[in-house]
């Protein structure tokens, strides 16, 4: 164990850690080894000795009064010493002083050496895992890409992302997607967990609204630069999405810059999402106006916001011509569901009598039946 600090830089380089983290891992390994081979009830402290390039291990004993009740506690007593006994070693000690008794793990032979080796391996590995955990914990909600390494029997896809393997569960895949070994894919980090038995597990998602936002940020320079901000987003993966955008620059059109010339930017994002239709909406803080935009392509006559006792908007009553109702609901209720998700309000549709176009009531009813949607069911689904 002579000059153990000589291996710090080598370990740090091999494991991708800072020398300080390796030193802390070594100190912890010495303390845990002492607890295992000397006495688990003792309190220990390990310090770095830069001169000798070793780690000094000492047992810490606190001086207490002779009648201190803690001296009768079997668990705490080994870390304490009565003042009368302590003064046999040092007649200058006072209450609450801490005596340091040095220990050398080399005195415990092969048992001490092998135990220290295991503890060093364990705590260095824990330091590596903590480093990776903190790195990817900060990436939750951000875009990552990697290569598919395997697909299990439950259709969970495992992806190699940098130095770790992440999983994309079937529930977090867009409907109809399938991947094979060797494919490269993009996803957002949905969750990062640390388990003392299984280590780090990273779950990815391609169905989260955050995935859509990250793809738009990647594709649209104005969003990446902050000239356009994604205020809100909602999506039904693989089918349709709505994105509320706001411009921070008077000369930048939020919707136009996001869609791109001839829709080239939004189409590129849609292609990554298996053809998902993306509606770009200009955000406004006026709830009535925002809701009327969100209900597009339906043309809305008026919007009434119903608030709860705390003054928070909880429901919107939307009045519209009868011939616009099917558009407001959308195929399989998608449009109204997305509008509700984006605004955070329940939406109630109110037809205006006598306001119709060439499309008859019978045609609307037939279209709704064709889509398999009943208006009331869509409202409360």
From TrEMBL:
Instruction: State the SUPFAM superfamilies in the record.
Output: Nucleic acid-binding proteins, Prokaryotic type KH domain (KH-domain type II), Transcription factor NusA, N-terminal domain
InterPro entries according to UniProt: KH_dom-like_a/b, KH_NusA_2nd, KH_sf_prok-type, NA-bd_OB-fold, NusA_N_sf, S1_domain, TF_NusA, TF_NusA_bacterial
Q: Among its keywords, does the record have Zinc?
A: no
Q: What transmembrane ranges does the database entry give?
A: none
Chief subcellular location equals cytoplasm
Keyword Transcription regulation tagged: yes
Record's superkingdom?
Bacteria
Q: Which GO terms describe its molecular function?
A: DNA-binding transcription factor activity; RNA binding
**Where is this chain's protein located in or outside the cell?**
Cytoplasm
S1 motif domain sequence ranges: 141-207
For this UniProt record, the keywords arranged alphabetically read as follows: Cytoplasm, RNA-binding, Transcription, Transcription antitermination, Transcription regulation, Transcription termination
A GO CC term assigned to this protein in UniProt: cytosol
Q: Which CDD domains match?
A: KH-II_NusA_rpt1, KH-II_NusA_rpt2
Question: What is the role of this chain?
Answer: Participates in both transcription termination and antitermination.
**Family of the protein in this entry:** Belongs to the NusA family.
- Kindly state the subunit structure of this protein: Monomer. Binds directly to the core enzyme of the DNA-dependent RNA polymerase and to nascent RNA.
Q: Enumerate the NCBIfam families for this protein.
A: NusA
User: What protein am I looking at?
Assistant: Transcription termination/antitermination protein NusA
Give the organism the record lists.
Answer: Sulfurimonas lithotrophica
The gene it comes from is nusA
């Amino acid at each position: 164990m002579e000059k153990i600090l000589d291996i710090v830089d080598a370990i740090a380089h091999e494991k991708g850690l800072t020398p300080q983290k390796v030193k802390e891992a070594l100190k912890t390994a010495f303390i845990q080894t002492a607890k295992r081979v000397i006495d688990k009830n003792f309190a220990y402290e390990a310090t770095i000795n830069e001169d000798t390039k070793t780690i000094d291990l000492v047992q810490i004993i606190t001086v207490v009064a002779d009648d201190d009740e803690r001296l009768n506690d079997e668990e705490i007593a080994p870390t304490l010493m009565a003042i009368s006994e302590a003064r046999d070693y040092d007649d200058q000690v006072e209450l609450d002083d801490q005596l340091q008794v040095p220990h050398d793990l080399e005195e415990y032979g092969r048992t001490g050496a092998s135990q220290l080796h295991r503890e060093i391996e364990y705590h260095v590995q824990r330091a590596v895992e903590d480093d990776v955990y903190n790195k990817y914990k900060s990436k939750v909600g951000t875009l990552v890409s990697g290569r598919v390494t395997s697909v299990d029997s439950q259709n969970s896809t495992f992806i190699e992302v940098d130095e770790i393997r992440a999983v994309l569960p079937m529930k977090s895949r867009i409907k109809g997607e399938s991947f094979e070994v060797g494919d490269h894919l993009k996803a957002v980090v949905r969750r990062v967990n640390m388990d003392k038995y299984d280590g780090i597990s990273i779950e990815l998602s391609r169905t989260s609204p955050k995935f859509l936002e990250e793809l738009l940020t990647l594709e649209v320079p104005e969003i990446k630069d902050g000239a356009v901000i994604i205020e809100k987003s909602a999506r039904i993966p693989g089918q349709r999405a709505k994105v509320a955008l706001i411009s921070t620059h008077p000369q930048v059109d939020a919707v136009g810059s996001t869609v791109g010339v001839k829709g080239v930017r939004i189409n590129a994002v849609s292609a990554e999402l298996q053809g998902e239709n993306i509606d770009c909406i200009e955000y406004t803080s006026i709830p009535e106006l925002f809701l009327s935009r969100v209900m597009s392509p339906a043309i809305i006559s008026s919007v009434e916001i119903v608030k709860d006792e705390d003054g928070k908007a909880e429901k919107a009553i939307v009045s519209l011509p009868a011939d616009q109702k099917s558009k407001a609901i959308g195929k399989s209720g998608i449009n109204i569901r997305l509008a509700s998700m984006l605004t955070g309000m329940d939406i109630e549709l109110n037809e205006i009598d006598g306001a119709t176009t060439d499309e008859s009531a019978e045609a609307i009813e037939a279209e709704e039946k064709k889509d398999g949607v009943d208006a009331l069911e869509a409202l409360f689904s």
